[in-house]
Amino acid sequence: MKSGYWLDYSACLGQPDVFDEALAARAGELSNVGIRCSLCAKPRAVLEVDPEGKHFHWHSWHLSAYERRKSDAGIATHIPEHLGEIPDYYRRFLPPIDIVAIKVHPADKDGWFNFGPTALWARAIIESAKTVIVEVSTAVPYVFGKDNGIHISEVDYIIDGDNQPLPELKAPPISDIDRTIAQHIAGEFEDGACLQIGIGGMPNAVCSLLRDSGAKDLGIHTEMLTDGLIELYKAGIVNGAKKQLDPGKCVFAFAHGSQSMYDATDRNPDMLCCATDYTNSPHIVMQNDKVFSINSTTQMDLQGQAASESDGHRQISGTGGQAQFARGAYASKGGKSFICMPSVFEKNGVRKSRIVLNLTPGNIVTTPRTDVMYVVTEYGLVNLKGKSIPERVHAMIGLAHPDYREELERQAYENRLLPRAVYPAFNADSRKIG
Questions:
Q1: Among this protein's residues, is 21 annotated catalytic?
Q2: C-alpha closest to that of 142 among 170, 171, 110
Q3: pLDDT digits (tens, 9 = 90+) for 121-166
Q4: What region holds the Acetyl-CoA hydrolase/transferase N-terminal domain (predicted)?
Q5: Domains, the chain, ranges and CATH?
């Protein structure tokens, strides 16, 4: 490692630990080292030893909670992306990487190291790297997949890892509002649906309801494999029997959850870990029928724009696969895309509506209004496809908390989202629409 180098740490469970500690120990000798990573599952030694960012510059494709704190501290930054396009970024737009260090399962008898449950864009990084270092750990499960490994002939250096258990991600508790939202979505499900489910209490609630719903022959083609999806698989509800693409297989790009989930992927022939340009690309997603894409957002405006990754100019996560799966699900025969959120949130002791006339200044639109299909809150579910602006406004107001609906109507009328010619019964004194 030299000053000015570009280094890649892969992402999530593929991040190296022994290498990270060794590099941190050399911080004082180095400057202007760029590091790309994503979805940090645990603290990174290079960031902890360099709290002012004098030696290492951290660039993340998708901020985890840990990286968000480092971004708030000004020592990490975000790279805007569609997660499914990242392999292409490395192959087409980014200069060659000086070093990649990636955690892998020990080599088999034929010399193949396995990436475990973290394919993501690992192959693209290796193709781009001048020097390839693998950190071998017996804690990494062996997961079948497409191009989910690297041959020893491609490796420059091998490091013995610490074999410590992989970091786990605890599932957030399921709230009553999560359950209500999940009930609205579960009512739309059909046997043979192919699932893409994001992270959080609400998606977990959907999985919980599906487990008891009598649904059958479900499939999985997702970006992130979660504990909720694995529980459906273990219950026999997910078998992939009706999938057109990779029938019988649970397709995913990375897993993050409990040790029990990691164990379930180990040498399991029903699991298929693939790069994100395979899992997320809309033209591939759509090849399965009845793709049901379920994701969360943090704020939507009255026209249906979903801002899911920032709080104003403060980056909190990333675009991820939300927009691509919304398009892929829509293009799928019988597919449905759901964007979900509680109707309100509380910040600094003040309750606010998540449905607003205008997005918070600086907020990033993750999924455009033209791509949003179903919107779900605890107050119901609406499909925005084909609706005019006034129809969208009324639909979104109906999903808002009752305490905010009258004010939203007034704002919509004053800003000509509800024109008088369309709604002549509007009474300016009562501030209601007849």
A1: no
A2: 110
A3: 999 999 999 999 999 999 999 999 999 999 999 999 999 999 999 9
A4: 6-166
A5: 6-160 (3.40.1080.10), 176-407 (3.40.1080.20)
